[in-house]
Design brief:
The protein is an alpha+beta fold and 244 residues long. The protein contains six helices and seven strands, in the order βββααβααβααββ. The protein has a domain of 168 residues: Pathogenesis-related Protein p14a (3-Layer(aba) Sandwich).
């Protein structure tokens, strides 16, 4: 069963931890949520800070795995000598042992990151369908969200970037926020973003999002009119982008 151990959402970034066992041995992340109100002010959706264990798990999962470099090693040669039989003539002085020269080791080449994936229309479409089912059930007066290609591009690029660079955050490695990424695709009014990692189906990730107040608020928010979803199946990074 899924056990939600911690959840926090902040004005700038939100985080938490869900403990699930995956076949790869890697634990999925609790979804993160971020949103803006109509005045482009960041919304705080949960005032409780993340627990220490959640912080540790988040830091561990978002930090790239350390690759240790091996320095060349040399082993000093040892020599043994047997005493020659004694004779009248002096024995020649022993020759000094020859030290083998260490052979340099070639530096290890880092493995190339996986290539960015093309949008997965099947999984993304399933998420959109589940979002609109939830809206029709809980906020029928708000209406369904319309898919916008600009939000879809921003969401897919962020999912693929997190997968390629091994991090999990609303802030890209180049310090861009979700609003920056959405505007870069030509969409003028970014609204919010949900992300998740590790859930292997649209239903699983939507279940996780709907059990979290912050993510549920983004999904059901009446002010949002458009949506774009991206997923990269290299460790399953999910992104939902919402627009006004």
């Amino acid at each position: 069963m899924v056990s939600l151990t911690a959840l926090a959402a902040g004005a700038a970034i939100a985080g938490g931890a869900t403990i699930l066992a995956l076949p790869s041995g890697k634990s999925p992340q609790v979804p993160l949520v971020m949103g803006y109100d109509g005045a482009n002010n960041a919304r705080q959706t949960d005032e409780s800070p993340p627990s220490d264990s959640a912080k540790a798990l988040s830091a561990e999962s978002s930090s790239p795995g350390a690759t240790g470099s091996t320095s060349p090693t040399t082993s000093s040669a040892t020599s043994s000598s047997s005493a020659p039989p004694s004779s009248g003539s002096p024995s020649p002085p022993p020759s000094s042992p020859t030290q083998p020269s260490p052979s340099p080791t070639q530096p290890q080449q880092p493995a190339p990151p996986p290539p960015p994936q093309a949008p997965n229309a099947g999984l993304a479409g399933e998420v959109v369908q589940l979002v609109n089912q939830a809206r029709s059930q809980f906020v029928p007066a708000c209406g369904a969200l319309t898919v916008d290609d600009r939000l879809t591009r921003a969401a897919q690029k962020h999912s693929s970037d997190m997968a390629a660079q091994d991090y999990f955050s609303h802030t890209s490695k180049d310090d861009r926020t979700f609003a920056d990424r959405i505007r870069a695709e030509g969409y003028p009014r970014p609204g919010g973003e949900n992300i998740a990692q590790g859930q292997r189906s649209a239903k699983a990730v939507m279940d996780a999002w709907m059990k979290s107040d912050g993510h549920r608020e983004n999904i059901l928010r009446c002010g949002f009119k458009t949506i774009g979803v991206g997923v990269d199946t290299n460790d399953f990074y999910w992104t939902q982008n919402f627009g006004f």
